[in-house]
Amino acid sequence: MSALTPPALLTAAELGPREGAIATGSPRPAGMKPLWRWRRAALWGALLALLGVAQTLLVALTVGYESVRAQEEVDAVATEAAADVRHELLGAIQTLQALAWNPGPQPDPLQAAAALLKARPTFKRVEWRDQNLRVTQAVDTPFRPQLFSQMPRADLGVEVELACNAARRAAAPMYSRSYFVPQAGALGLEVIDLCVPEQRAGREAGFLVGTFALAPLLEALSPSRQARRHEFSFVEGDGTRLARAGVRRGAGVYVAERVVDLPGATLQLRADSAAGRPSLIPNLATALVLGLSIALFGVVLLLARDVRRRAQVERALAEALAFRKAMEDSLSTGLRARDMQGVISYVNPAFCAMVGFAADELLPAAGLPGRPMSTPGDAQALATSQQASQYAPPYWPPEYAALYQHRQQQRLEGSGRSPSELREGFETVFMRKSGERFPVMIYEAPLVDGQGLQTGWMSAVLDLSAQRRVEEISRQQQERLQATARLATVGEMASLLSHELNQPLAAIASYASGSLNLINDPAADTPGLLKQALERIAEQAERAGRVIKSVHDFVRRREQLHETLGADALLEAVLPLARLHARKSGTRIELDLPPGAAGAASRPQRVRCDRTMVEQVLLNLARNGIQAMEVATQPADRVLTLRVRAAQPGRTTFSVIDRGPGIADEVAARLFTPFFTTRAEGMGLGLSLCRTVIEQHGGTLDYGPGPDGVGTEFRFTLATTSVAESSETGRPVSAR
Amino acid sequence: MVHAPVSFTLHPPLDAGLGIPVVYLVDDEDVVRDALAWLLRSRRLLSQGYASAEAFETWLAEQRAPGRSAWPQAPSCLVLDVRMPGTSGLLLFERLAERGLLPLLPVIFLTGHGDVPTAVAAVKRGAFDFVEKPFSNNALVDRVEVALQASAQALRGRKMQGALARLLAELTEREHDVLRLVIEGRPNKLIADELGISVRTVEVHRARVFEKMNVKSAVELANLLRDGGLG
């Protein structure tokens, strides 16, 4: 029975979560829930029914067992009693035979018989009969009144005669059938006779007849413990009771009958137990079983309640889990958990979508050991992190892997950023599976387990590329706007210039045409007119020259703004803007200053220039370089180098080196031509203006292939100023 | 820079009866105006320069003052800069067009770059032509000459019209009637029936009309009237 319970439990337990999952998952088909409810009700019903049946059976078996035991007891008692009776009666045969066959020395058979009657109370009477069955002598028991006082012996001699005749034929003692002897007081006694043939000298001499009362026979039975609780009786075949004995009356429920076989007759002995039909309540065994059953029921009920509650909790848990999972899946923020070794232990779908790797590829079980770290500089990073795992997640750009490894190591050591800083987030660059780099914002928080120990870091990762794109677009728009504004200014200036120049030129053309007209058709005053025309032409040419000079003066006025500053200051001023441009394509910008330039001991090269103009030149060149790498160069190779070197004496060379595809010949031929551009949005003034600016500074702008033969290097030189000149003295010192 | 007027031997008049053609230059740029004047002189064309539209209008108002003979008496052409401070060339052109001067005073616009659509619109409204700056000098002068010829043509028409009107004014009322019917091509008899006079009288009137109109035949008379814009 108890074996039934676990499957029921198991079913409930394993169905619980599924139901929860269904409830929170896809909409469940209608009718599913009632069906399931019916099934559970049926299971519980079956359990209870089985339990009931089993209990009933147990009780029935217990009761049955009681009955069987009582019956068995009665049977045993009856058997024993029958054996005793038989033993007694067979003993009586021997006693009588001894009396019959031993007359010789016996002085008086009557005396012997009297002694016998005294000794054995079951004997009621001994009589001798002759061959014709007439009573010759008789001795009665001394313990009771005359047996045949109420009715003469002769009237009751049928049975004994039958027995004696049978004894004669068999030549062996024979018992008669029992018969009733009325007694005084309307009582009676059931007796049985034993007829033993007497033989003398091999001849039949007569019969010895002994009479036994049946009731004393039963009363003489061994009063054992069991026997005392039974009523014994002799019955006839039809159930008529002949004699009875026993302390108690039989209940008539447990009855056993035994046949006592005697020579010439049979007696039917009945034992009737005083124990009644077994009742339920006062029966201890039954009560115990019932009590246990009730207890079991109680336990089962408790169990059922427990299972029910458990199922509810499980369902709630499953719902909460599903809710959390849905929450996690619907998040657009990437989640990533790392253990203390920096190995990823969890990623959510948003993170996978962001980096383009499947979860299996990111989790160490499948992905280990990630990408082997191969970047130079690893050695240094690893030296500080010997025990750190060399595992580099696949979304780390290879060029940054060493840096990230170092940062992670600092994190694990507890140095580096403080937790509050981490919570505020920091920006870094990840790589998609396609190799595309993209900026992300990472917020990290320590991952603490149930015992309060930190087991790792949980990071929320935001993809900033969309935001960057928007920023980029707005920046481009702004730039375009500025360019348009500049263009408008340039256009205005050009229009002004062209108007200013058009007038004298138109006048000159008019005078020249008129002069030609005169020469073709000479008249008297022609020479005078020609002279006049030429004077006017000269006048107008001079005027045009003045216009040009005024433009030159404007440029010259800017030269008044020249200042002396360090080469590194120029680069640093350009750097933020250049980085802004570089961010879109993931280009890295490297500064290459002369060795020792950064140190305090040797001052960096100082140059005198129009700061705004030269910065614009640097920015233009940097932007060109970044754009040159946008298409054909691998993201990992997108490096723009800004280099400063002391070149020839007294000059400083600035180089902007990209790793792009270089400059095609047909482009190179027109590179510095104004209004020539390879870009759709370009004005085509960039390089030409750059060269103009540099030439105004007395330098040159040229270009060539990059130092490694890759890409392009644009170089320009500026005059180096000695430190002394830029100092307070202001004394001009010849350039170094 | 204003130069002393240059003296030239003038171009022989295009039409002896029409007087010396004049080119009016209206441009705010003195240099350009003087150079252009000089160029026109080199092609023997007389020119008058005005620094602004207002200056030209003032001068024009003087010419057209009441009591003076109808202006212009000589073939004329106006070379007009589109862009000028104050009254623009375009506005001046509109005003001239309103006064119906355009056939007699063809206008050639000088336009800078960007003004071409404006100039084309002006041509559609009756300007003679436009020349884009920087212009090819002799081509401009060629256009000016064509414009002067057109002006001379218009001037001739106007003068002929004036003469015809004077001749017609000398006819009596009866002669007018006869003239009208003669031009319609009716024989004298029908004219007599129409007017209710005798054929003889018609013949006399007819002869007098021919004499007064200085023609010899009815056909000649019809041509004269047609040329004078009355036919």
Q: Kindly report the CATH topology of the largest domain in chain B.
A: Rossmann fold
Estimated helix fraction of chain B: 40-55%
What are the low-pLDDT stretches of chain A, counting only 5+ consecutive residues below 50? 1-31, 366-389, 597-601, 724-736
Mean pLDDT of chain A: 77
Would you tell me which CATH topology of the largest domain in chain A applies? Beta-Lactamase
Count of helices of chain B? 9
Report the sheet with the most strands of chain B, covering strand number, pairing sense and barrel closure: 5 strands, parallel
Radius of gyration of chain A: 68 Å
Number of helix segments of chain A? 20
Calculate the terminal CA-CA distance of chain B, rounded to whole Å. Answer: 54 Å
The CATH class name of the largest domain in chain A reads Alpha Beta
Described by the principal axes of the CA atoms, the overall outline of chain A is rod-shaped
Largest sheet of chain A: 7 strands, mixed
Helix content of chain A: 40-55%
How many individual domains of chain B?
A: 2
Describe the structure.
- The complex is a heterodimer of chains A (736) and B (231).
- Chain A has 20 helices and 22 strands.
- Chain A is α+β, with helices and mostly antiparallel strands.
- Chain A has four domains: 71-273, Beta-Lactamase, CATH 3.30.450; 333-462, Beta-Lactamase; 470-558, Orthogonal Bundle (Helix Hairpins); 563-726, 2-Layer Sandwich (Heat Shock Protein 90).
- In chain A, strands 16, 17, 18, 19, 20, 21 and 22 form a seven-stranded mixed beta sheet that branches.
- In chain A, α1 (5-24) packs parallel to α7 (284-330), α2 (32-101) runs antiparallel to α7 and α14 packs antiparallel against α15.
- Chain A is rod-shaped, with a radius of gyration of 68 Å.
- The longest helix of chain B has 33 residues, at 137-169.
- Chain B is of the alpha/beta class and 231 residues long.
- Chain B is elongated and about 75 Å long.
- Chain B is built from nine helices and five strands, in the order βαβαβαβαβααααα.
- The chains are: A alpha+beta (736), B alpha/beta (231).
- At the A-B interface, α14 and α15 of A face α1 of B.
